Structures are given as C-alpha cells and as structure tokens.
Amino acid sequence: MEIVGVDGRDAGVFRRFYEVKFGVRREELEFPVGMGLEEARVMMAREQGEVRAEGLGLVDGDVWLGVAWLDWWLVGNTDTVDVELAVVPEHRRRGVASRLLETTIAKARHEGRRIVSGTNMAGDPVTGESPGTAFARQRGFVKKHAELHQVAELPMDNLPEQPVDGYEIVQWREHAPDEWVEQFAALLTGMSEDIPSGDRTSEIVRWTPELVRDAEARRLAQGRFTYTTAAVHTASGELTAFTEMGGTPETPDRLGQYGTYVRRDHRGNGLGIAVKAPNLRALQAGVARPAVLHTSNAPENAPMIAVNTKLGFRPVAQRTMWEREI
Hints:
Strand order of the largest sheet: 1-2-3-4-5-12-6-11-10-9-8-7
Distance between the termini: 25 Å
Order of helices and strands: EHHEEEHEHEEHHEEEHEHE
Number of helices: 8
Mean pLDDT: 92
Shape: globular
Helix content: 25-40%
Strand content: 25-35%
Largest sheet: 12 strands, mixed
Low-confidence stretches: none
Number of strands: 12
C-alpha cells in the first residue's frame, strides 16, 4: 500500500479519488451533500485567495482503499488544516483511515499548523454519534461544535410573502453589483464574526471586495450558479441582510445554502424569512426540476433553524466538528 498525492490536475486520478470520497457520502447519508466531480476538481486544482485544497489516496496496486481531502486555510484559521477521511466499506478496519490521518498530521506539522480539524457528516440527528465519532475520540480528537443538517425538497409550494416595512429587496446572480460589493463584503465579515462556532478554533475572515470577486470567479470556474437576495434599509441605503443559494448543472438535484446573515442592529424584524423566501422562489424557478436544498446551523442558532422549519426544511443528520492539537 502507498500514499499518493492528488491535486486535481490529472482528471483520471481525480475521478478515482472522487469516486471514493462521494461514494462514502452516498453510503452514509440519506441525502448526500457535496460538490460534483468537476466542481470539486476545479476547487482542488485552482489557486484561490481563501483556501488551498489537496488530496491523499491510499492505494494498493490499482485499488483505491481510502482518501483524505485537506483544506489549508489561507485567511482566517491559518494555523489549522481541515481533513475529511473516507474509506471504502470493504476496506475498513484495516488501518486505512489511521494511515491517512498519520500522513495528514505529518504534513500539518511540516506546514507549521498546530491543529487538525474534521467534521463528521453522518451523525444521528439527535445524538450526533456514528462510527466516525468513535474513530475521532480514539485518535485524540475532541468534539468542539455541532450543527443540524436540514433539507428542503424542491419545488416548494406556498412560500410566504413577507415584506418588511422600511426595507427593499434586491437580487443578483453570479456577481454582486459594483454598487453593493463593498457592503456585501462587510456582511460576509459580520457573518464570520457572529456565526456560532462552539469551542472551535475560529478566526474572523475579514472579507474585502477582492476576496468577494475571487470567490465569485472560483464558483464560475467550478460551473456553479448562485442566487442572492438581500435587504436594503431604505432610510440609510445600507445592505442589512442577505442569503445565497445555488448549485451546478452537473448535480442539479443537489443544491446548497451558501450563507444567510442579518446584521445585528436589524435583527428581530423578520428579515431572515424576508430574504430566504424570494430567493427560494427564484432558485426553484431557475432550476425547474425536483431537487434537494441542504443547509446546516448550530443548535444555538435557534432563530435561523425556526426560519428554515417554517419554510419547510426538516432535520436529517447532525454534523459534529472535532479538533486535535498536534
């Protein structure tokens, strides 16, 4: 058995890597979430401002036993590497995940990172427990955070019309309009500051218009489409809330909620549902076929979970986030 590196530039190698990674997602989750093949390959191959991604595979001849996806953060958590491990079911309990984890830790030390973190996607909706959580504990990881994974099956009927006095709704697709990009970056920074993260090691990402444009360019390179709805406070002319959703033509049945945020000084006015409902209408009109929309929120973010539930989302799993200092 040997470890091979994966960088997304060899499409054939990346396909073998992806078949293991997403194959495990399909096996473990009722509603698999994640990027499509080409979307994920471009994410790994392309240079970008926020994060550098790479892969590891443990192979035996021509047989891929397991893989690891590594995210090296370039802004925010620059002392952390995130890892996702996936092992083909028939090759489990042979030390495959342990070998991949040991290689990841060695690389992290070489890169000067002090924390290895990971997310268990397939926890029980109530307890969060799974074979992955048992593996994490046995390898010295500590649970730091949890999020409720909810899904909505589109198309959805009877989405509420809930305008809010004193606010106007604006919408855009792949690019934030130039007139809004600076304020939109400020909202993204606010979301980074305010999003519940439990005991995770978390640094604020200071978004700039340049980072926004880089993220937009990455999504286009990945083939993603994006729908954004924002609320403008009419008296001040300021952006106060937004939501983003989207997907790719490669996996049109699997859509993602990229982010929703309401500025602190404008909360309690119903802006969450005021932006999400029209965005959902635009999204499902554009997709025009049955699809599953995925979102996740920390349990302490009860207001957003309540908004999602009112819109028709339901819980399907609990994700848990784990860290190990090295």
